[in-house]
UniProtKB/TrEMBL annotation:
Domain spans labelled MGS-like: 1-149
Pathway: Purine metabolism; IMP biosynthesis via de novo pathway; IMP from 5-formamido-1-(5-phospho-D-ribosyl)imidazole-4-carboxamide: step 1/1; Purine metabolism; IMP biosynthesis via de novo pathway; 5-formamido-1-(5-phospho-D-ribosyl)imidazole-4-carboxamide from 5-amino-1-(5-phospho-D-ribosyl)imidazole-4-carboxamide (10-formyl THF route): step 1/1
SUPFAM superfamilies: Cytidine deaminase-like (SSF53927), Methylglyoxal synthase-like (SSF52335)
Upper lineage: Bacteria, Pseudomonadati, Myxococcota, Polyangia, Nannocystales
Lineage: superkingdom: Bacteria
Protein name: Bifunctional purine biosynthesis protein PurH
Keyword Hydrolase included in the entry's annotation: yes
PROSITE patterns the record matches: MGS
Catalytic activity: IMP + H2O = 5-formamido-1-(5-phospho-D-ribosyl)imidazole-4-carboxamide; (6R)-10-formyltetrahydrofolate + 5-amino-1-(5-phospho-beta-D-ribosyl)imidazole-4-carboxamide = 5-formamido-1-(5-phospho-D-ribosyl)imidazole-4-carboxamide + (6S)-5,6,7,8-tetrahydrofolate
Source organism: Nannocystis pusilla
Gene behind this protein: purH
Gene3D superfamilies: 3.40.140.20, Methylglyoxal synthase-like domain
Entry EC no(s): 2.1.2.3, 3.5.4.10
Residue spans crossing the bilayer: none
Pfam families cross-referenced by the UniProt entry: AICARFT_IMPCHas, MGS
InterPro entries per record: AICAR_Tfase_dup_dom_sf, Cytidine_deaminase-like, MGS-like_dom, MGS-like_dom_sf, PurH-like
Amino acid sequence: MTAPTPIRRALVSVSDKTHLEVLAQILIDAQVEVLSTGGTFKSLEALGVAVVKVSEYTGAPEILGGRVKTLHPKIHGGILALPSAAHEAELRLHGIAPIDLVVVNLYPFREVVARPGCSFEDAVENIDIGGPAMVRAAAKNWQRVAVVVDPSDYARVGEALREHGGALPEALRRSLMRKAYAHTAAYDAAIAGYLARFDDAGLSLGTDVLPDRIFVAGAAQGELRYGENPHQAARFYATALAAGEPAGLHRAVQHQGKALSYNNLLDADAALGLCRDLSRLGPAAAVIKHVSPCGAAVARADESLAEVYVRAREADAESAFGGIVALSGPVDRAVAERLAETFLEVVIAPSFTAEALQLLASKKNLRLLSLEDMLVGTGPEAQPALRLRSIAGGLLAQREDAVSVAAAQGKVATRRAPTASELRDLEMAQIVGKAVRSNAIVLCKDGATVGIGGGQTSRVEAARQATARAGARAQGAVLASDAFFPFRDGVDAAAAAGVTAIVQPGGSVRDEEVVAAADEHGVAMVFTGQRHFRH
């Protein structure tokens, strides 16, 4: 192993200028000659760095509106040259100085295309060319050249320079090289993923057509304690969001409690999704256990969020023990007092007041997550996110399920039509039902679930489970089924428990028999033509 090359000359060109003042001081202290371009040049100069413009160094001006700045032999020769006699002779022949440190991050392509209304032209103009070329070149020549793409690495680079007499050790250069290639790979994946949304005529494929290729790139958010079970290794990787897609859990701020586990994250995601859907009906609360809803509620007239949460919890208080809660509004003292009454694993909400945080601080094992913009982009017009699932040999992809045909828009199949209050509860039951494992039956009454049956191999068994959980509360409740009733037995079981209205997709060969059963019991039934299986 050869001795590391001292850092004498650096090229700095960054779109993300986070911690640039830290880097500037490191370069000043290490007496590094600095080359730079455009806005980065101005920022470094303002920070007191003796910086030279790349165009002055190369003798070639920036051209084509800045599209060509660093694509020059004096730049790439300086980066790619090996510490060999032959290469050093060539550098001298052509008047090229070695570049020992490349600090580059790329045009903010992902951020630009995530903006609502971003045009195709704007997206293409934000595809970086010179930046990836320099990063890849420096990473290829990692044994001599250090490459930094992440501002969070500036401090450790500075510390290493001080400890190693102005040079960077091999282990650090190797680490930076790996990170650089991951950076450009993720960048290219974002570009390819964006372009895959369009056909050869440049027209958007929309949400009904999935692309021919899927590109997934994620950055690890730290180690998880373990996976679903203690013997399984696991990590959480944050991926880029599509334009208009609601914020993900990687954006959540954890205020207290142990680190989140694999199961915590799965449950929190389920709670977040259900709460978002229910919030279209009003202030909402969802309680999740093992990725399935055990209780949910939406506000009635003049009802506080604390009251909504209590009704969601009391839908199945036994199952709520150790559950995960999502709330559509800020957690204040009144809500916090109610949350403190039950052992919970995670609570996620847009925010927590200082008083609420103080009150819940005694719950040492309770994780509190705030996601300020958790409800942004969740309206009916939102584009369904692309959901991926791994199987042996590949990935399955589909658009996220959405209730696009609410009970009020469905076809009344029975002699009696649902009342206005029944329709509102039916819509809520539909939303909760699509979050329940198939076969799924959900009973709702007065804006809260009262019985949920899910994960059953028989629909009538799911109906029996839901009505048994509801008990006396099934009287006057409504029911949503995620798929059609293949026989009348499920309707008979629901009616016997006191259910007054049902929403289901319809489409069974025995629909007439099922509708006749509903008419016999005086139960209103609506067909939506839309199934909501969740496997």
